[in-house]
Amino acid sequence: MMNKAKHIYAVFYLLVLIAFTGCNSRADIAANADKSCDIQVEVTTGRQLSALAASALSFSMKGSSADSSRNASLFTPKNLQSIKKALDNSDLKNAVVTSPAPDTLSVSGRVVPQEQQKSLSSSGITISNIISCTDDTLSITLSPETLQTLVASLGTEMEGYAALFMAPVFTGEPMSKEEYVWLVASVYGEGVAQELEQGALVMTLRTPDGKSVQKSSLPNGAEVAGSKAAVRIPLAELLTLKTPLVSSISW
Hints:
seven-stranded mixed sheet, single chain
């Protein structure tokens, strides 16, 4: 069984992993003048991925208040309660965790400024390694190295969760998008593979107080309009990242 601190870290990682493996994930990140940021994440899983993730969630959260049934739904009241309890002790303040639909997870809250953040692992990783807000810049960094380090620091239970999805971004194994989709299809079937191919992560980055975006560094296809930028990353591309993917706006 995980101790309290490690359980908090594991739940944070679990949220990241669910967001990465959900068929359609939306993340709205709004910078604040005090260098905190408000986030709203909504993940909708496909039917096939939901069943797979539910099985993995039951395994990875044994000993917590999560539902341990092999046939548990992914976002049961007990699982939501466990996530909320862990986030209450994290650097995401005023967390709200809901499931507006059986296949949807919604999490919102305020990430405290970097200087107030606690390490998520023994390696010194903090939320700012993923979401960073300074006086004039908001950056989102999706780094295989950070995610792999976080996985390794959380022990065999969460490593087992990552291994279930076989995603190169978590395992570190070099693999093209096509090779990864083929692997998923051969292990879990065409249904899961199709959901991965059709899925995407959509991120919206917002400046504080409606200030106009003055400068940006964004992936191809991103759009900037007024005080925000929208980024869409195909799920298969996300799960096979080999180098950090950085999205940032300055005001």
